[in-house]
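Appendix C reproduces, verbatim, an entry submitted by the partner laboratory led by Prof. M.T., so that reviewers can inspect both the input and the predicted structure.
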Amino acid sequence: MPSTRNLDLDLLRSFVTIAELGSFTAAGERLGRTQSTVSLQVKRLEDSLGRRVFDRTPRSLELTDDGRQLLGPARQLLRLNDATMAQLLEPDIAGRVRLGVPEDFATAHLPAVLSAFTSAHPLVELEVTCDLTLNLMKQFHAGAFDFVLVKREPAARLEGVRVWREPLVWVARDRDAVEGMAIIPLVVSPEPCVYRKRATDALEAIGREWRVSYTSTSLAGSISAVAEGLGIAVLPREMVPPHLTVIAGDSNLPPLYDTEIALIEAPGLSETAHRLAQHVVAALEQGK
């Protein structure tokens, strides 16, 4: 009778994490292991299979054909394992959680945070809605969300707890985009938008004329418009892509106050939703 060969789930978890992050070092950080330990686990996996799963050079890391063939089934095995363990050990951490969040903040900061929670609690069904802050607040008070992350003025006395604060900056295609302009062309989101109001209020406070040159409902659309020289925009510093230019204070543009993100929980929150909210707060505090 042929011997049974089993895949080691711990080795598969390291393999999948490396494939998703594209780095042994980053995978080690996510898994709480050293880079050398992760490398050793990949070697053990390759030895058990008798095949290489990665092509590695000092400057690149790619899946081999065998690695690509293994990746899908490996993910399925890990999902089944995690769901089974969660059902046995944490049956109460389950159910749907509805989260509202501004699109730009969700794009830059939340994917890894939410992925870590759903990986640890695979019975949780996450429903994320991205919208403008004032729209999110309206839906929140109508009962549409379990909790929301919303933009607010740092000095505002509003409900919720502050979880993030970040400088806002003017961004343009290049410095020439604002040189000698009598009227500032703005790339903005539709009203109501916190950044749009922040930009227009700041310009009006110093007597600068402005006009809306481009309106986009998405962060990607705004960035593309700025990159094509259609106007300038206000963004959090960490969200400025490398191909755009941050315009400093010597350009006759007014300074901008920091942005603040607050988390607000709905009354009667479920234990699962409260756990996720706590996880988001802790993760964002750690990431500052």
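The chain is about 45% helix and 25% strand. Additional entries are available on request from the coordinating office.
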